[in-house]
Structures are given as structure tokens and as C-alpha cells.
Amino acid sequence: MMTENILEVTDLQVFYPVSRKTPFEKKKSIQVLKDVSFAMKRGEVLGLVGESGSGKTTLARSILQMIPYEGTIIRNTEQPQMVFQDPYGSLNPSKRIAWILEEPLRLKGGLSKEERVLKVKTMLERVGLEEKILEHYPRELSGGQRQRIAIAAALMLEPELLIADEPVSALDVTIQAQILALLKEIQKEMNLSILFISHDLRVVYEMCDHVLIMQQGQIRESGDVEEVYFHHKDPYTGRLLKAAGILV
Ligand SMILES: Nc1ncnc2c1ncn2[C@@H]1O[C@H](COP(=O)(O)OP(=O)(O)OP(=O)(O)O)[C@@H](O)[C@H]1O
Hints:
Elements: E1 5-18, E2 28-41, E3 45-50, H1 56-63, E4 70-75, E5 81-83, H2 87-90, H3 97-108, H4 113-126, H5 143-155, E6 161-165, H6 173-190, E7 193-198, H7 201-207, E8 210-215, E9 218-224, H8 225-230, H9 235-243
Parallel strand pairs: 3-7, 3-8, 5-6, 6-7
Antiparallel strand pairs: 1-2, 1-4, 8-9
Helix pairs in contact: 3-4, 5-6
The structure holds adenosine-5'-triphosphate.
């Protein structure tokens, strides 16, 4: 069943509680995601675009079952893995890279030390890093190297679905291009599905097959990247494309 959907989201609603000013006030909540529905095919790179606060990270958290929601999320896969904007937050600062990359395998169990080390070395090569980096701590690496390690760590358990939340936003433009090229290469090699979250429409154009345009918790427009970028139907999409300098 290689063409089945890896992810199906139907009528997703997410509410966050609003803190009360006094304990006597009625409990309130704000709706952060509203009627969100979409499907993602196996091996697809799906862009999720929207301005700050539009609900992109909230959607990722719902897919990972980290927050309560209403509606249906069907994941036809094991637990997806995440890559974040700032790998500083996700890489344990007190551990060497060797330990960090081995950890998911150790937690899962079933492999000998030698097998784990071999897998770590193979993955390191795949993300374009040399073995000597294994002895270093995250703070000793450059931003680009750290993001390569974060990608390697996310891929150690060979997930089928990766959620990348602004994975290149903190990097210089040249390093951005390198990391995007790496992600694309690995995506093809592993037939990985990637939910690629970004506020940068140019980066999404580079990376994605399909795109969801989100505004204030709702999907305004979705479809093939070429179609949405050059034949958009929603005026909001047009405004975003103009702001990004893609449309004049
Ligand atoms: N834990 C929370 N409690 C209450 N409100 C929250 C919480 N987390 C996020 N929000 C609010 O929900 C809305 C959507 O936030 P979210 O982080 O999903 O947006 P985003 O599109 O990922 O933004 P950014 O690009 O800035 O990360 C925002 O208005 C935010 O202030």
C-alpha cells in the first residue's frame, strides 16, 4: 500500500485556555485551529505556510499528540520525528554528539553497542559530517553542523514522517541552501514524508510538492506548489506572495 495517505487530518479544532484575571471569572478559551482538514501522501513534502501566530506549531503539536484537540488525526505510521528551528533546544548540551545520536537506538533497544555505533557512523556520513565530530559537544559546532546533527538524530529510528518546524530559519542563506539540499536528498533516498513548516515562501517553493496556506488557524488555500504560487485563488495567498516578492 505505497500510495496510501500517511496522514489524514479531518475537522481539527484546537483551543487554548485563556488565563483568568480573577478566580471568579468564567473559564475562557480561544480557538487556535479551526476546521483544519488535509491529507498527506507517503513520500510527499507538504509545506505549511503562515504568518507568525497562525497556528503552524500548534498543528505540529496536535499531530504529535502533545496537546488535546477535537476532530480526527489518522497517522498511518509510527511516531513522527521532529526537527526544530533551533537545534540548541533539542540537542542535550551536556552530552557528546556520539551519545546524542546513539540515544534513540539505546532507548528502542535490540541492537548491540557495535551495531549502534555502526548505524551512527552511517547516518553521520549521510548528513555529510566527519567522524571526529562525534567527540564534540553541541555548543562546539556551527549552526549548520548542529542542524545536520539534529536531522541525523531525528532519522536514527528511520521514521517515515518528519515534521520540520522552520528548520533553516535560524541559518545564513548559504547554509540554508546546503541544509535544504541535504533534506531533499535524504527525502528522496528514504522516501520520507516531510511536513515542512515555514513562514518563508521561497524556501517552501524550493522544498515542497504541495502547500497549505494558513491564516488565523484556518487553511485558506491548498494544492500543488506551482498551482498555488502562480494561479492562487485566495486573495490572502496573493498578499503573502507579493510580500515575499514572488508576485509583483
Ligand atoms: N500554550 C499556549 N497557550 C495559549 N495560547 C497559545 C499557546 N501556544 C500558542 N498559543 C497561541 O496560539 C496561536 C498560534 O500559535 P502557534 O505557535 O501555533 O503559531 P505559529 O504559526 O507556529 O507561529 P510562529 O511562526 O510564531 O511560531 C498564537 O496566537 C499563540 O499566541
